[in-house]
């Protein structure tokens, strides 16, 4: 959502001006998906070197979107925001005239933090959550912010000796965490990073995602996460998988937990309430 006329769009359409000149949204989406996936693979095989600053972020965006947009790698020149989401007010990102200044503030702070080197996993997760929330609030590009910022944070993690597994984060979960952080509630983002930096919680999530995919369920449009220690939950048991189980909670989230936390006699489809062990 942009204010007034948007110079990035073909007049009278919602289609972003693009290198191949495609005027149909579906065609552009397909072209973008294929080409950016190829460029992201290139980056993963041969990472872009940089100082983890604004120039580095721009270089990532340019590499990923160079086949799609002529302005790849350039900060936007228009106001940008997201429409209301499940009762939340609209989220407006940093105005264009403040982008360079805010980017400098964010990356100067990152530099002062020694690029998160030497931090234990949990503290790294918390700092990385703040960083992603800050870059997301910046939202410096007209399109492609999510992919670019995840590449940037993954590179920071590798540089600091940690791994982040964004492949188990659904689109819905990222949207909810980003909106909450943008409204001053970073807890969901911090919890997400504590989870996706913890190897013991990644494999159960991947198995759950594989199950949902086999069942033709679009897990990307659902909030899916693992249970947290010492928390209370209630919902319907979906099934078990070895030492893990899956429930659909009463508030329609998919959660993966440890089988020892629930009654072993419960069957799929039954309702349950439980507290996880600390």
Can you describe what's shown?
- By secondary structure, the chain is α+β, with helices and mostly antiparallel strands.
- The chain has helices at 25-45, 54-65, 99-112, 121-138, 145-160, 171-182, 187-196, 199-214; strands at 81-82, 91-92, 224-226, 232-241, 244-249, 254-258, 271-275.
- It contains 8 helices and 7 strands; from the N terminus they run ααββααααααβββββ.
- A hairpin with a 2-residue loop joins strand 4 and strand 5.
- It is globular and about 60 Å long.
Spatial order of the strands forming the largest sheet: 3-6-5-4-7
Helix/strand order: HHEEHHHHHHEEEEE
What class do helices, strands and sheet pairing give? alpha+beta
Q: How many H/I helices? A: 8
Taken as a percent bin, the fraction of beta residues is 5-15%
| CATH fold topology of the largest domain | Fic-like fold
**Total domain units:** 2
CATH architecture of the largest domain: Orthogonal Bundle
Number of strands: 7
Per CATH, the superfamily of the largest domain is: Fido-like domain
What summary fits the major beta sheet? Answer: 5 strands, mixed
Taking pLDDT < 50 over at least 5 consecutive residues as the criterion, the unreliable ranges are none
Write down the overall geometry: globular
Average pLDDT confidence is 94
Based on CA atoms alone, the radius of gyration comes out at 20 Å
Distance between the termini: 43 Å
